[in-house]
């Protein structure tokens, strides 16, 4: 089943070119009180709700996909976990391009670098244009298969890992290139785009056989298959859950293949993963102005600390 969030927290089932509004099923979610349980309430109950969603769609209102505003299919993850340098050809392009690596030693593996987190507030959907920061700095697209965790887990063995997956979606890990930490330059509002919807795990038996493709203004930039992942999805879940408890709705961005490149205001991005679909996203026509810095003064102040 393809499930989307749209038009201010409505829930839909995607069929063909239409979204069937099954939002009334949300009334079945338990009423939570403070402190709220960790994780996404809808994702945590999704397995139980699927029969009801299927029933509700029979007499649901239908909206053409092109006429709705798509939001992130996950509303409340506790964290957005990211795999760095997880495709060999991307490691090679990173070594070759100083603008990407910025002096970091890219001969090391994901085992050396570990995983990193993007801020939850960076989460966004296809209908929300990506607003760039830092005029003059390169900001790149990174298409990634994104895994949505369905069940709370920790210390998961590789062989059991896929049992904890609720579904899959397309992720854009928008990235300012530069010397700052990943948690800063990849975490601006809107820099973690998920969509256009989630596909439940039963529709993707093997997440290690999916084609990915990303175009900017119709020009092909990235094209790969998830079989080229260095750490595949089960291994990433094992690795992540050895460090963090994973909660329903947590997202693992599995890493981007080769072909990363800059996006500029007004660009149109088309990101496609087989068995999921195509996400159309756009880059906001304006760059967000930043406060003025005085590099000399700032450097002097920093040295006094
Ligand atoms: Mn990435």
TL;DR of this structure?
18% of the residues lie in helices and 29% in strands. The chain is built from eight helices and 19 strands.
Ends: how far apart?
55 Å
Topology as a string of helices (H) and strands (E): EEEHHEEEHHHEEEEEEHEEEHEEEEH
The parts where pLDDT drops under 50 for at least 5 residues are none
Assembly type of the chains comes to: single chain
Radius of gyration: 19 Å
Question: How many β-strand stretches?
Answer: 19
* Percent strand: 25-35%
Summed over residues and divided by their number, the pLDDT gives a mean of: 94
Q: List the ions, cofactors and other small molecules found in this model.
A: manganese (II) ion
- Summed up, the helix count is 8
Largest sheet: 12 strands, mixed
Helix content: 10-25%
The SS-based structural class is: alpha+beta
Shape: globular
